[in-house]
Amino acid sequence: MSFIEYLLKDIGFHVRSTLVWCKTNPCPQIYKIGYMSSTEFCIFATKQKGAKHYWNVERGQRQSHWIKPICQGNERTQHPTQKRLDIAEDMILQSAQKGNVLLDPFAGSGTFAIAAYNNGLKFICFEKDGDIFKMGRKRVEVTTAQMNLFNFIWC
Fold it and tell me: Which SS3 state, helix, strand or coil, does residue 7 take?
């Protein structure tokens, strides 16, 4: 169990599942010693005890991991740990319904905000790094040019 899962449980959340992205081409470490960071995790949790987690049964049962390279080409930004849009959209299509609100407390390059918008969800994003915040917000605004600002909360 990850540190974040422990924190979520400690404040009353119920962890439903953990998903893993295994990168086929991870970025090497600066000093080229030790292990490369080749995995990213996503945790699904609910606040209410006994709350049902939505599952899109029409898409069937899914594996809990993706084996794909890091973002490249036009999708790539300068963010060092950018997530893939296709993986974010797969997660949303599987576990959210139109009109739901996606909370991304580590918004970075804005990938999940774009995926949420593309699939009819509202979203709330947080990012503590001011430069990354500006880059991510600009990416979301450019990608979703005609966005309804009531669907967009970026802190």
Answer: helix
CB-CB contact of 84 with 41 (8 Å) = no
Query: What is the Cβ-side half-sphere exposure of residue 38, based on CA atoms within 13 angstroms?
Result: 12
Encoded tokens for 111 = 């990938």
Q: Give the residue among 149, 153, 101 at the shortest CA–CA distance from 127.
A: 153
How far apart are alpha carbons 131 and 97 in whole angstroms? 32
The predicted structure's pLDDT at residue 153: 53
DSSP 66-105: EEEPPP-GGG--S-TTPPPHHHHHHHHHHH--TT-EEEET
Q: Which two tokens stand for residue 126?
A: 């947080």
Distances (CA, A) of 90 to 59, 62, 98: 10, 10, 14
Q: How confident is the model at residue 7 (pLDDT cuts 50, 70, 90)?
A: confident
Cα–Cα dist 60/39, whole Å: 24
Please give the C-alpha separations between residue 93 and each of 100, 118, 131, in angstroms, as whole numbers: 11, 10, 30
